[in-house]
Design goal:
alpha+beta; 8-stranded mixed beta sheet; Aminopeptidase; globular; 4-stranded antiparallel beta sheet; 10 helices
């Protein structure tokens, strides 16, 4: 597989250089034209590889099939990744760089001195002797989730080149707009036609996830009263001060910086405004459905209190449920997790089964009728300029997918 892995790394570097940022404020789908143009090139590349039915639809979804070659019944397995990247970190002019045979010391990413230190990122020590890919420290890298894309394509390239490997139909799906919570909006589960799938959108080697947050977005608009400061007494109501007051009423210990594992949070994603008007956007998350509802109720109570204090309609709140914990849909199909776990163990990888402290397309797809847990890509520090991925972990991700396919293809 050496040549295929070389192709994978080359493809990854090429893909990362393409700015496929998604835009939550866009009214189009996909939300940015760059995703559509990138998708067209990827679909073309897939057809040239031998995935003859690879196509991109009007919404930017890419579907393709690796045809099965057995004459007995096996499940149709899907592998899914997303092509967009976040817009909260610089994404223009990404310059991936490969640090070969990492020596365990601090990684200097650019001449300006931006450094990944072992002290701050002790996980780096797990990759001594391996090849690590980073950006130049001024932008995102894009391993979330272009690592998943190229790993799936490396799997396809290997199976197409080795027809003696027995398998059922394998379905491939690449989605747009996952980072803004819209990755499954027009996903045609019936057309995808898989019995179950895995999103390849996880973190370090061994990660295996089938529990996600229950998620909601709280959109807050605050209507202030602006007046000249010289005559403001008993008249001015500052929207930005009211925004600060609202935020102070939420539990400090339930903010992302102070939570882990199954602990939920309120995350102030962004705030903007002036004395006259202010807007806030919160992410509300909890794995436990009851605690999740309590968090939403608290947000409603805080807004009600402020409206009582400062006058009706000072604060407007819109609560939007985003996705549910997919555990409910995976538990009846635990063979999907058991097989993935066994595949890792067969390859000498310790499975790390843990809840996802974020969202994936798989959460929504599971409730759309396609059970879809999450496999590792090998990436670290997603959504940050410190993002990095181990080439050897990417190779293992391919081998895990291949082992999953082999286990499901064994004749009963």
């Amino acid at each position: 597989m050496k040549k295929i892995y070389e192709n994978m790394v080359e493809r990854f570097v090429k893909y990362c250089k393409v700015d496929t940022v998604s835009d939550i404020n866009s009214e189009t789908y996909p939300s940015t034209q760059s995703q559509m143009e990138f998708g067209k090139e990827v679909a073309k590349e897939m057809r040239e590889m031998g995935l003859v039915d690879a196509e991109i639809d009007e919404y930017g979804y890419i579907f393709a099939t690796i045809p099965g070659n057995v004459d007995y019944e096996v499940p149709t397995i899907g592998f899914i990744a997303h092509m967009d990247i976040i817009n909260e970190v610089p994404t223009a002019n990404i310059k991936p760089q490969i640090h070969k045979n990492y020596d365990g010391k601090d990684l200097v990413l650019n001449k300006g001195g931006f450094t990944l230190t072992v002290n701050e990122f002790p996980e780096l020590r797990n990759y001594i002797g391996q090849d690590i890919i980073t950006s130049d420290g001024t932008t995102l890298l894009g391993a979330d989730d272009k690592a998943g894309m190229v790993e799936i394509l490396a799997l396809a390239e290997y199976l197409l080149a080795n027809p003696e490997i027995k398998h059922g139909d394998i379905r491939i799906g690449f989605t747009p707009d996952e980072e803004i919570g819209q990755g499954t909006k027009y996903f045609d589960v019936e057309k995808f036609n898989a019995d179950f799938a895995y999103t390849v959108d996880g973190g370090p080697i061994g990660s295996l996830n089938f529990e996600t947050f229950n998620a909601a977005t709280a959109k807050v608009k605050i209507n202030g009263t602006n007046i000249h400061t010289g005559s403001a007494k008993n008249k001015m109501v500052s929207a930005i001060l009211l925004a600060m007051e609202l935020n102070s009423m939420l539990p400090e210990e339930q903010k992302p910086a102070f939570t882990e594992e199954y602990e939920g949070f309120f995350h102030l994603n962004w705030v903007k405004g002036n004395v006259d008007v202010a807007e806030m956007n919160y992410l509300i998350r909890d794995h436990d459905r009851q605690k999740f509802e309590v968090k939403k109720d608290l947000m409603v109570s805080v807004v009600s209190f402020l409206n009582e204090k400062y006058g009706e309609n000072r604060v407007d709140l819109e609560l939007i449920d985003s996705y549910k914990n997919m555990e409910e849909k995976i538990r009846p199909e635990m063979h999907i997790i058991e097989t993935a776990s066994q595949s890792m163990e067969n390859l000498g990888i310790t499975p790390i089964i843990s809840p996802i402290r974020g969202g994936t397309d798989g959460a929504r797809l599971s409730y759309m009728g396609l059970p879809c847990p999450n496999l590792f890509t090998g990436g670290h520090n997603a959504h940050a300029k410190t993002e990095y991925v181990s080439v050897q972990s990417m190779e293992k991700a391919v081998e895990v997918m291949l082992e999953i396919i082999k286990l499901y293809t064994l004749e009963k």
